[in-house]
């Protein structure tokens, strides 16, 4: 396993104005993390990078299969997605190209939580209901942090929330929840009508936001 870190100076101090009360701009960290990933793959000449994405997270991911072909620039073109009939995978590629493999592609959010329960996996408290100061922006609750401070005209509120997906705090929204245990979360997920990434501001920029990022090399 190779660990590569994005430049700390590039990540911090530039992301605070990402989600405003009137607009949602693309986090600079997305382009930074994508370029860091692509640079690492090129440096080590990896044939495949393994990810934990699932098809039920977002409709653009539903177009992918277990093997997601990327061209020499790390870009994904849904028109070139290869069929995987009878669980047969086509791993052929040209020099410079690579794959992103998603072993959990067919899992659902419910599958994940039931597995967590069965295996008694410990999770960070962010995944469970807790009280914290949040601010409402574009119909989403964002945690107030040093990178996402309260802006003029806004008022922070203390809400009981949890995070269904954990990522960049400047574009990851919380959901109001009282689910404090794994069983509580399973019951909540069973009744949910919004996708897991429905609280991600970076997916709200347009109908094709995720697909556009994948075309640029995003995981």
Give a brief rundown of this model:
The protein has five helices and seven strands; from the N terminus they run ααβββαββββαα. By secondary structure, it is an alpha+beta fold.
How much is the radius of gyration in Å?
18 Å
Distance between the termini: 17 Å
Structural class by SSE content: alpha+beta
Kindly state the mean pLDDT as a whole number? Answer: 80
The percent range for helix content is: 10-25%
The biggest beta sheet reads: 4 strands, antiparallel
Estimated share of beta-strand residues: 5-15%
Number of helices: 5
Low-confidence stretches: 9-29
Return the string of H and E elements: HHEEEHEEEEHH
Shape: globular
Arrangement of strands in the largest sheet: 5-4-6-7
Q: Give the number of domains.
A: 2
Number of strands: 7
Write the layout of secondary structure elements.
Elements: H1 8-11, H2 28-44, E1 48-50, E2 67-70, E3 98-101, H3 109-119, E4 130-137, E5 140-143, E6 157-162, E7 175-176, H4 182-191, H5 209-215
Parallel strand pairs: 1-3
Antiparallel strand pairs: 2-3, 4-5, 4-6, 6-7
Describe this structure in words.
By secondary structure, the chain is α+β, with helices and mostly antiparallel strands. A hairpin with a 2-residue loop joins strand 4 and strand 5. It has two domains: 92 residues, Rossmann fold; 95 residues, no CATH class. About 10% of the residues have low confidence. The radius of gyration is 18 Å and the shape is globular. The longest helix is centred in the N-terminal third of the chain and has 17 residues. The chain has a four-stranded antiparallel sheet, with no helix packed on it. Strands 1-3-2 form a three-stranded mixed sheet, with no helix packed on it.
